[in-house]
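Quick start: read one record
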Amino acid sequence: MKALTYERHGDPRDGVVKKVFDPRPGPGQLLVRVVAAALNPADWKIVEGKAPFLLLPRRPFVPGCEAAGVVEAMDSRVAGFHVGDEVVVSTGLGGALAEKAAVSALHAVRKPGNLSFEEAAGIPAAGQSALQGLRDAAGLCAGRRLLVNGAGGGIGTFAVQIGKILGAHVTAVASAGKHELLAGLGADALVDYRRTDFAKAREEWDVVFDVVPNRSFGECSRVLSREGVYVTTLPGAGPLLASLGASFRSPFGFRKRCRWVILKPRGEDLAQLVGWAGEGRLKSVVGRTVSLDQAAWALSDLSTGHVTGKTVVGVA
């Protein structure tokens, strides 16, 4: 089969599409013929070596953590799937940017017939990051005020919609060119970051979800409500120290919190998201579709942080 491969950390544009050995389904796995895969920030961070905890797990490394395709084979112990089923899958740290991928059946769900493969491929990683960030890390619930910084990207477009599904009032921060899209996704208020600094606003929010992420807990704490939560998609020393600092101040009446989200692929979360998409309550925004031969350059473009929605790679 053909796959986008990397032999070492470096420029995403250095990726080579070449023939590699077909994977075989291991215990509890499905072998999926990939029709479409989607790109995520974690992909280029792994390739570039920007995140020390995201190293190339094997060489050649095939990036991509989400895909949609057709079940071609499976481990004999897998139940609930059949050869020929159309599925949406999480592939873990990589493996999606290839013609075939072996994935855990626990991280696969059937694709609804009303979703295209391209739309479905964009759901698993960004959708679960948004869901777990808002529901689990932030504890978002009905009646709360949510601000999404970086609302026009992959995680951001899902966060706006999931915020509305959970019953929140949603403020979306993005460039003006993305406001019409975000209003159509349900955003209650829109902020153009090029004209207005939300961190200096006179408003307060119960949750600030920083998915760019380019703002710190310290910068955002002044616009958080008394028991507000700041959630970032970039874990590291900064958020950890901010969280510890907030905890040390809690005995003195400081109730604001700093949290971070690290994607944990869960079959039940993926099923929930795909279910909402099948019902028309959640839209997978595909901003751009490229071929596998163009995927390395598209991965480099993704690192600029200015894409709209999801960049999807048509494989089959």
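The radius of gyration is 19 Å.
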